[in-house]
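Work package 3, deliverable 3.1, input record:
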Amino acid sequence: MTVTETKPAAAPTVTETITAPVPSRGARFTGAAANYIDERTSISGLVKELGRKIFPDHWSFMLGEVALYSFVVILLSGTFLTFFFQPSMAVVTYQGSYVPLKGIEMSAAYSSSLNISFDVRGGLLFRQIHHWAALLFIAAIGLHMLRVFFTGAFRKPREINWFIGFILFVLAMAEGFTGYSLPDDLLSGNGLQIINGIIKGIPVVGTWISYLLFGGEFPGTKLVALFYSVHILLLPAILVAALGAHLLLMIINKHTQFAGPGRTNDNVVGVPIMPIFAAKAGGFFFVVFGVIVLIASFFTINPIWTYGPYDPSPVSAGTQPDWYIGFADGMLRLIPPGWEVVFFNHTYSFNIIVITVILIAFLAIVATYPFVEAWITGDKREHHIAERPRNAPTRTAIGAAGVTFYAVLWAAASSDLMATHFKVTIEGVIHVLQVLFFLGPVLAFFITKRVCLGLQKKDREIALHGYESGRIVRLPGGEYIEVHEQLDDYERWRLVSFNEHQPLVLQADANGQISGAQRTRAALSRWFFEDRIAPATKTDLERSSEHH
Amino acid sequence: MAKKSMTTNTGSTGRRGRRHPLATVALIMIGLVTTGGAYALFSSTASAEPSSVNTQASVDEGKKLFSSNCATCHGLNAEGVDGVGPSLYGVGAASVSFQVGTGRMPLANQGPQAEKKPVQFTNEQVSSLAEYVASLAPGPAIPSSKYLQADGNASTGAELFRVNCAMCHNVAGAGGALTEGKYAPALAGVLPVHIYEAMVSGPQSMPVFNDTNLTPTQKADIITYLKYLDKNPSPGGFDLGSLGPVSEGLFIWIFGLGAIVAVTIWIAAKAN
């Protein structure tokens, strides 16, 4: 473009050749400034490298961005809150604007949180922005994880990044929980009391850990100060570092893309960071920010003023943690009573430790799933094409089982509200959920797997024979046929381009032995891949196209 | 236009002496409004000082109402029927006023607990019933109106509410679940007199908070706090039912994340 424009201009007159190469003042300044910076930082290499990074376009690829942007909103609003919050459990008498708490003794932390809500200009809005953004942050992380899981985007070379992402998820929950405890209101205190119980349920060391954490008997006087440092310094620092690593690895590994015309395992088709993606992402940041501010302006979150100051004696009905801790609370509600034995005058209680073990096991499975799947399938290839969930039926079914498991626990956390709102007994809700705890994931697994296989069959059918058009044609010989509408090559490509996996075959090692691990692995691999639909091959397609 | 008005004029002169077809309806309306208004006026004056009109006539009226509406379950002399309805000796006027005045009694059907429903009796009939039951045996009386003005100390009331009531009714008075399908109801919009009566009579699963437990002034403070919550909507905006983190979580997943996912789909669609 530039070449074709400059050539005719340069030829005719002398005056034009002098004026043409002289850029405008603005361009000269930008050029000089860019040069100044580049000579001192060598940043051009980085800009060149990053600016040309390509990002494929799909709505689900933006969920991680949502998490990132809400995190930025959290950092900004949180900084504002630190100006006014007093992380101290010293007893003060409230003299602020909220009438039903006037003259009540409370901690400085709670009093300053109330002042932020009622007496600092814009304070309540910032508090609500901070809290809503936190809920959105973790929700976006959850959805992002589900997207990565169900499209198999965690496969080699991205297993480590999945693990880092998992760490981010746990850190985000920890951030949420410490933040929830800071205002020192009744609800957060009740939540801490539950955590205290869980910690004390750890055999032998539980009581010691509890005393260490709370600086003595619960609730103590040190917790808010401790959690404050953890919440605003320690966890954010680790979170930002892990986030950096997460993004860096994403850039190094490149982004996955869905199969499509021209999109293969060896390329990335999309828009470059500079300028299109950056502009879109920048705009999207403001959209996310806007949605959060809009919600925070119109909807109350965590009305600490109705909860009152923390006092170990009262417990409110309907006490729940924020949604991301709900699954742990639900697990507590599902454990049947009476799981304890008396042995040599000591009571050994298992109803808490069992919960801790189940929850940790669940999180451990989530954290290590990519490595486990890679081991079972024996797949050592690199994968840059995001799989459609139906093309990995067993994985999708495992995911669905996991989601159901989580959902049952999540539902259990609001068992009391379900009982009152749907006019059923709380025991009924709990018993149904206890059954679903075991049955739900199993049902979800089989149903999902069958649905995936069914969808795959349908895809294969369509790829080979096209859509039924409903048009019946009578041939000259008198034969009636239904005309099938054929797909074009682009559409067909989307349907047929996926990998077929075979179960691992047991092979003897160098010594002619077959180890136990090998056997398990082969059995698991068979379980993973025994039901499968082969993608339509080239010969299949050619044969079917001759047919029609 | 002119033609039309002409015809209507001639029409009305033609039918002089006949009533407009809507006149009957209007007459009935006027009749209903005046009697209803007068009745409302009368019944509100009657309820203003219910305890002072403790007459034998009222008690007799209450006994009649009791025999026809309550005796099936509570027995002809309020002595109770085994397995059906409890004895009402000693429950006092407060209990009757609460149970009948909120529509919980007469019971619509046997269930985990009596539901609030439209009141079946007039205020006068309710107080007659209350007087009759109170005449059988001493029990908590209908509270004096000086405790029901919601002009006490809201802070003390809030603190007492958190310590005594919040474990069932929730700190924001949003209600909560109890065992076997029973529940503590939400307290928004409950009349001060019913709040007070519930505290002194302990309806259903609720414990009795007698005057040594919570003094009348403290009860008045609790009423003040609950009325404060009624009068002052949440300063943070819509309160999502005051149900705490569950409704907040549902909201952010459905509307927050929902809106943002809609935007991502829109952005990605534009690119294609």
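Chain A has a mean pLDDT of 88.
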